[in-house]
Design a protein that fits this description.
The chain is 57% helix and 17% strand. Helix 3 packs across helix 8, helix 4 packs antiparallel against helix 5 and helix 5 crosses helix 7. Strand 10 and strand 11 form a beta hairpin. It is an alpha/beta fold and 843 residues long. It is rod-shaped and about 175 Å long. The chain binds ligand C2E and calcium ion (CA) (2 copies).
Length: 843
């Protein structure tokens, strides 16, 4: 009952009362059977009340029909009691019944008017037919039921049309009559019982038997109904939990709980309020008759009346207009006449509320049975929701784990596994190129500036690569990934072999600018190896090829390199060599050869250069040009240098003991200088072998010194402070100027053999050698020429005033024993080879 309802009730009630008044005025007041026994109206009132109260509950097509068994009393009353007394009995019983049921005043008046009107209508019909025929004799068995049926139908028609005329309530249609049918059947039965009672009134024993029979039937029916009710309830509950079994996701569970609750409690509307906690978010979802759950705005307010109610009662609550403030607030909020609210409990706390509002059939309000049912449903719903939340969490964690498994923790970029997947699908589509990028000397950043700075640098590099590649990816797709360490990979669909280097070069542009880190900026270089589908259509192989190309680029001093068929064999050999080299270094299987150096002025041997040699059991003789860079890349170079130093100094000591005055030069590779171990190894080994520091010369290339000037200068100064000689090897191949070298504590330059060997033919080489000798001398540096292969070069160098010569003309690198032999034979042999050394002019 909503808007307009009071007006309708007033109208209907008024009409009914008018009918009653009119009927009572016009109809005769005597009982219809003049010769019947007396029946006191009070007894009749009691029987009416019994009928009202007991009622016959019949479950029909998921609706409960309540037959109030009062037609027997009415018919018997019409037959035996004066009309006003009958009305009095009916009204009194109705009042008491409605009071017990705590119905509202409007409803009480309405009901009483309805009952009275029914009595008056039936009385009128009986008078019209002839009471004697209707209540006694053979025809009565037909007429009495017919009269009652007509009474009910008339009442129905009148009531429904009155109501629908006004507020558009239910129309008087076929359906409404179908709904009436069960009541009519009941009324017919009652009419027959009433006739039986009238028939048997003269025989009190039979009458008593009838009453006993009726009572027995009533008791049996109640028991059966209750049993069936419980069974039905269990069935509903199991149906409810069954519906929830298959649901695992919280959203599904919520939807099912709402739908099922509405269905089980025969209401169109249900609502679920969940208070959020650490385990799951707050939710507020409403199921509406129009279908589907509707998510309410935001989480439910903490003081939502439904939550207030369940918190206060800690049990399911039946809410009606007569409930407390919170109850009424809930009804107002729902716009409902009545509702049931049940708590969702988690442990001892109330985690939410399940609400159903208004029965769909409107005939009946919720009962205490519904409340119990709601309580059970809420308990089952809590279990299902907990399960749902667990599932959600597992799924979330799985998603997080999946992300972790496929992404790099530092940069968040896809890792090798994910990249391989992408690459695989791209390879299936068509042309695709892979660029493998590796930072140059990243280990040095980690070693000298710390891993924090290293990580920050990697993040910056990743960000720049991402920015640089974003437009490229937007155009044709593609993925950037960090494979680990300082290695990144880019997959570019559609990239063909011809464009590999152009694309790689473009990516390398990222390193043109320094990377700002705190108050400094790091200049970083990288090498890129590129490969494409033409090389292999297997992701693993393709990445491997790109890596081979990348190492090739590194070997050539950085930049880009594309994979060439056959590179793979080279790469495999390199891998094998690294393994073999490691074993050789560990077992001290490397040997040292010595190449003598001769003073160009006197022709006397002044020193030797120690050159490492390796004969591998598997690979035979491997040249230092091949394995020294490998030692650098695989972190073996420190051990290698120490080994050579140790061997060479041991020799130097024995030569000194034999009275041979020779320096020994040892090559230090770029990594060897940055590696702090050199600084500690040199004094230790000098000491161990008892060699004077000035007998040792360390040869460093320009590149070694220039690659990290700040570090180099410091190390060089400390080495020089030990008294060790420092020589710049391969001079002329780099970019450094002598002016710069002057600032370093070096005492010697070695002109690269390429210039020396080219001296005879190439005018440029001769000019370079000449100017180097002059400039170096101006700066107070000794000049050594290496690669002296013939007497012409030797003489030319002599003429230029170069200090020392080294080369095949004098000797190839020799074993220590062969060197002894060479030294012993040299004065005469050398004389024959080079002619007598020029006489020095006394100064
Ligand atoms: P390098 O330091 O420039 O060594 C001189 C190289 O020139 C040696 O080659 C030597 O055999 C070669 N050579 C000497 N005289 C002549 C000549 O008249 N004509 C020609 N064509 N070549 C001549 P080797 O021994 O093969 O060494 C090559 C490079 O390997 C060395 O170049 C050096 O950079 C590196 N290396 C050799 N031993 C060591 C070592 O113990 N430690 C380190 N770090 N590097 C080494
Ligand atoms: Ca050298
Ligand atoms: Ca050299």
């Amino acid at each position: 009952m909503r808007t307009g309802a009071p007006a309708r009730v007033l109208l209907v009630t008024g009409t009914l009362l008018a009918v009653v008044g009119l009927g009572t005025g016009l109809l005769p007041h005597e009982p219809l059977l003049t010769d019947g026994p007396d029946l006191h109206w009070a007894l009749l009132a009691g029987l009416f009340l019994l009928g009202d109260q007991v009622g016959l509950h019949v479950e029909l097509r998921r609706r409960t029909l309540i037959f109030q068994l009062t037609e027997v009393q009415m018919l018997v009353g019409l037959a035996l009691v004066p009309l006003p007394e009958l009305l009095l009995a009916r009204v009194l019983a109705g009042l008491v019944h409605n009071l017990i049921k705590r119905r509202s005043a409007v409803k009480v008046v309405g009901n009483v008017a309805l009952h009275s009107a029914e009595v008056v209508t039936a009385a009128t019909l009986l008078h019209l037919v002839d009471p004697a025929v209707a209540l006694t004799g053979a025809w009565a068995w037909l007429v009495a039921p017919a009269v009652l049926v007509v009474t009910i139908v008339v009442g129905h028609v009148a009531l429904t049309s009155l109501a629908s005329a006004h507020v558009g309530a239910r129309q008087l249609d076929r359906e409404s009559f179908v709904a009436l049918a069960p009541f009519l059947a009941c009324v017919v039965a009652e009419a027959l019982v009433a006739l039986l009672v009238l028939e048997l009134l003269d025989t009190p024993a039979a009458c008593a038997a009838l009453v006993v029979l009726g009572a027995a039937f009533g008791t049996y029916h109640r028991a059966v109904t209750r049993q069936r009710g419980r069974f039905a309830q269990l069935q509903l509950l199991s149906h409810f939990t069954e519906a929830l079994v298959g649901q695992v996701e919280t959203d599904e569970v919520v939807a099912t709980v709402l739908e099922q609750t509405a269905e089980v409690l025969r209401s169109d509307r249900s609502e679920l309020l969940l208070v959020g906690d650490a385990e799951g978010p707050a939710r507020w979802v409403r199921h509406t008759p129009l279908g589907g759950p509707v998510v309410q705005e935001g989480p439910p307010p903490q003081d939502h009346p439904a939550l207030v109610l369940v918190r206060r009662h800690e049990a399911a609550v039946l809410v009606t207009r007569r409930s407390d403030v919170a109850g009424r607030a809930l009804l107002a909020e729902l716009g409902a006449r009545n509702a049931v609210v049940a708590p969702l409990r988690r442990g001892s706390t109330v985690a939410g509320a399940l609400v159903v509002a208004d029965r769909s059939d409107r005939m009946l309000d919720f009962t205490s049975h519904d409340r119990e049912l709601a309580e059970s449903l809420a308990a089952a719903a809590t279990v299902a929701l907990d399960k749902g939340r667990l599932f959600d969490r597992v799924r979330q964690e799985a998603a997080v784990r999946e992300h972790q498994v496929l992404h790099d923790a530092l940069t968040g970029l896809p890792n090798r596994a994910l990249l391989t997947r992408h690459l695989q699908s791209a390879l299936r589509e068509g042309e695709v190129g892979v660029l493998l990028l590796d930072l140059d000397r990243f280990q040095d950043v980690n070693d000298s500036l710390g891993h924090d700075v290293g990580d920050r640098l990697l993040l910056k590099v990743a960000a720049r690569l991402r920015d640089r590649l974003a437009p490229r990816f937007a155009g044709g797709g593609g993925w950037l990934s960090r494979l680990g360490g300082d290695e990144f990979a880019v997959v570019l669909p559609g990239l063909a072999e011809a464009d590999l280097l152009t694309e790689a070069q473009a990516v390398l542009g990222v390193f043109d600018e320094a990377f700002p880190l705190g108050d400094t900026a790091l200049v970083v270089r990288a090498s890129i190896g590129a490969a494409c589908r033409a090389h292999s259509s297997q992701p693993g192989r393709l990445l491997q090829f790109a890596e081979i190309a990348m190492y090739d680029a590194k070997r050539r001093g950085g930049g880009c390199s594309a994979y060439l068929a056959g590179d793979e064999d080279v790469a495999r050999r390199r891998l094998e060599l690294v393994g073999a080299l490691r074993r050789a270094v560990e077992a001290s299987q490397l040997t040292v050869a010595y190449q003598p150096k001769v003073d160009l002025a006197t022709g006397r041997p002044v020193g030797v250069e120690a050159l490492v040699r390796w004969t591998s059991p598997d690979h035979g003789i491997v040249g230092p040009d091949e394995f020294v860079p490998l030692a650098e890349q695989s972190g073996l170079v420190g051990a290698l240098t120490t080994l050579v130093l140790d061997t060479a100094l041991e020799r130097a000591a024995s030569w000194a003991r034999a009275g041979r005055d020779l320096t020994v030069a040892v090559n230090i590779s770029p990594r060897g200088l940055a590696d702090g171990s050199l600084l500690s190894a040199v004094p230790l080994l000098l000491e161990r072998h008892g060699v004077a520091p000035d007998r040792l010369v360390l040869e460093l290339t320009e590149g070694t010194v220039m690659s990290d000037p700040a570090v180099s200068v410091e190390v060089l100064e400390r080495l020089a402070a030990l008294g060790v000689g420092l020589s710049i090897d391969d001079f002329g191949t780099g970019y450094s100027s002598l002016a710069y070298l002057k600032r370093l504590p070096v005492h010697e330059v070695k002109i690269d053999r390429a210039f020396v060997m080219g001296m005879a033919g190439d005018g440029d080489d001769a000019a370079i050698v000449r100017s180097t000798v002059h400039l170096a001398h101006d700066l107070g540096l000794t000049v050594v020429a290496e690669g002296v292969e013939d007497a012409v070069a030797y003489a030319g160098l002599q003429a230029l005033g170069c200090d020392v010569a080294q080369g095949y003309l004098l000797s190839r690198p020799l074993t220590a024993d062969d060197l002894e032999t060479w030294l012993d034979s040299w004065p005469g042999h050398g004389h024959a080879l080079l002619g007598a050394p020029p006489q020095r002019q006394p100064v």
